[in-house]
Design goal:
Chains A, B: It comes from Nonomuraea salmonea. The structure is a homodimer. The first copy, chain A, is an alpha/beta fold. In chain A, 41% of the residues lie in helices and 21% in strands. Chain A has helices at 16-31, 36-43, 47-59, 124-144, 179-186, 199-210, 269-273, 275-279, 285-300, 304-328, 339-357, 375-389; strands at residues 34-35, 63-69, 77-82, 87-94, 98-104, 110-117, 148-156, 159-160, 166-169, 174-177, 194-198, 219-224, 228-234, 237-238, 332-335, 365-368. Chain A has a five-stranded mixed beta sheet. A five-stranded mixed beta sheet of chain A has the order 14-13-12-15-16, with helices on both faces. In chain A, strands 1-3-2 form a three-stranded antiparallel beta sheet. Chains A and B meet through helix 1, helix 5, strand 11, helix 6 and strand 13 of A and helix 1, helix 5, strand 11, helix 6 and strand 13 of B.
Chain lengths: 401, 401
């Protein structure tokens, strides 16, 4: 008999009840309508424990009872469904010249999608004031709908440590910014948790929960913005590394003789296959968007220079995806940002490189993201919902009148 | 408030009781002697559930009761300690010319360490017969000590899929070998699970459980044998990728103009910084061992050519560790195999490269393994113990007279 591996897990003994609450909540999310007896039968928890856990979830308005069903053998049972109508999750993405905000309900349905101009080049305190104002408006809108905000997660294009400090965001000019703390102050301690994360990490969570490959256990998202970063999901969870800095694929060296990168090194993935290599010049994000559209037009018309350039970018990107594949063996790699419109011309070269470079049988599926430009903001909401699913349940509804 | 991230986990509802058994077992391992009330207080499980779980663990002779203690307020409590005296875990490593076997008790104490000559170049069936004979002798020895074998895990230098099939082991000349199934037949269905895994994966598990960095949540082991592979532990668990092929760092390209590798590609880590680059020739494993000792002597005597060669190997290895670090951000990287004796001359260049290439603040600790040549075999035993700790408990002791 061959069994699959499991290793020791951190001994988080105090979380057993929270874990079991989360198990029941996820069971109801996936199997509603269902009875307490169904939950007990499927989870191995005893009936008294299930009743206690369900009562707790009903108190928190995460689950509600619906009518009896008699469509079964024996006594009719009270059926349970997901509630969560009085809640909202908020995700915000800070870009170089825009802020995006997304709010969803507990089931992930979109309640709100905003995009606002924003000057990321301002100081951290000016930026926090601007982001804070937008978040306050989102929170007010949710309050009008009588929804309590479960949490906020903010995506930043840069290195974010496990405590949520923005250690370095070169394109925003930020370093060592306590964005979460500053936002909490700007929002005057709003009563919900604020999390800060890298944009590729949150976009990966959005793909995991909402994308066409939702549920894939081993998925990597590659952001194609001003920089290139990876959000790495392995065995169903985002893997951020010891300090929180995983996914920095943009400055992995592909060629010691390659072009000089912004970072001063040579032949980095970003220099070989980033948006700068597509456009061959540095532009503002607004100009970049227009230029990418022009590149797409040229590619569609079969312009040989453009096609050669996109093949070269695909070759570099394929080298990067091959490194990811040899090291991590993901089932799917999702290209985001500016790579999405360019995918038809970039992907063939990516696949060629995978064929050449991947050691093991079976390369991952490589696809363009379908979640659009607010993938990281949506991922912020996904991260809030992930916290709920993991047992960080809202305490009550005291803040809603 | 900033909280750490958690994502959705696979909904393994049926495993809740097994998980809770494992929670209690691990609590006893870490806190013995302890009472049922201690367990209930620390885990959040109710007392009735804890009593039922403890009774189960006592039935399985994984936990036993010791005397009462009165050294506390209120009623004296019956104290619990880890038992497991009637059990053994077996790990085996198949090398090119040796087989190593290790047996440990439930607490990881060594019961047996064997190393035997072995001709890995034989056909799979001849090899299975040879390995099977050794395992049978280990099992018989354990039976004499009245220990039931909890499981066997076998380390193979090659690609092993998640089902345990050896897809490719170039240095053994094996492909698509159902080693676990064949061994089970050779052992005539021995009544314990047989697992097969990549050697670097198992060595990483050995480091995680028994090494000086035991318990590190984010740890990478780099094997330095005939090939170079990585065992990747993130967030406390081995991450084997979607198909089981993670860690294939040996054929990540460091330099498109680099030396030709055995695999036919150019500038692979193995070609730049593998044992072949140290020795500059291909030798049998026995000869390699002698040659490495000679290289160490030369390095100790300050031979400039040898020192330059080892610095060059360290530079290449540092490039590989930098890629690992940028992508995965481990806290510690452990060099195994032939890198261990060479570490004093290789590590300085590794650290230089990390300083040059790692994007985020804070490079990982890079150290030589202290577990010796049977790290992967010891890791096999660790994998068996991991299975127990995760709730795959032995059913009973019927097989022991």
């Amino acid at each position: 008999m061959i069994t699959s591996t499991t290793g020791p897990q951190p001994a988080d003994f105090a979380d057993v009840r929270a874990t079991n609450l989360a198990v029941v909540l996820r069971f109801v999310r996936e199997h509603a309508p269902c009875s307490r007896a169904d939950i007990a039968a499927s989870t191995g928890l005893n009936k008294a424990t299930v009743s206690s856990l369900v009562a707790d979830l009903i108190d928190r308005r995460l689950v509600r009872e619906t009518g009896l069903t008699e469509n079964r053998v024996g006594r009719p049972a009270t059926m349970l469904v997901l509630d969560g109508s009085p809640y909202a999750a908020i995700g915000v993405e800070i870009g170089v010249d825009t802020v995006s905000a997304v709010a969803t309900d507990l089931a992930g349905g979109r309640l709100l999608t905003w995009r606002r101009a924003f000057s990321g080049g301002d100081s951290v305190s000016q930026s926090v004031a601007g982001v804070g104002a937008i978040v306050r408006r989102v929170v007010n809108r949710m309050a009008k709908e009588e929804r309590q905000v479960l949490g906020l997660a903010v995506a930043v294009p840069g290195l974010v440590d496990v405590q949520g400090t923005v250690r370095l965001a070169p394109n925003l000019g930020w370093h060592d910014a306590d964005l979460g703390g500053d936002l909490a102050k700007a929002l005057r301690d709003p009563g919900f948790p604020i999390q800060v994360d890298n944009d590729a990490n949150l976009a990966a969570l959005a793909e995991q929960r909402f994308g066409p490959h939702a549920g894939a256990a081993d998925l990597v998202y590659l952001s194609g913005g001003v920089g290139v970063g990876a959000g790495i999901i392995l065995d169903g969870r985002l893997r951020r590394g010891g300090l929180g800095y995983s996914g920095e694929i943009g400055h992995v060296q592909l060629d010691p003789e390659g072009p000089v990168c912004h970072c001063g090194r040579r032949g980095c993935l970003e220099a070989v296959a980033g948006i700068g290599a597509v456009l061959r010049k540095d532009l503002s994000p607004a100009e970049t968007q227009a230029e990418i559209e022009e590149v797409v037009r040229q590619a569609r018309s079969g312009d040989p220079g453009t096609l050669a350039r996109l093949t070269s970018v695909g070759t570099g990107l394929g080298q990067g995806v091959a490194i990811l594949t040899n090291l991590l063996d993901p089932a799917v790699v999702i290209l985001g940002g500016y790579y999405v419109p360019l995918a038809p011309w970039v992907l063939p070269a990516v696949h060629d490189e995978l064929g050449r470079r991947v050691v093991a049988p079976g390369a991952p599926e490589v696809v363009a993201s379908t979640l659009g430009h607010d993938a990281a903001a949506l991922g912020g909401a996904a991260r809030v919902l992930d916290s709920i699913d993991s047992g960080r349940l809202p305490g009550g509804l005291a803040r809603i009148p």
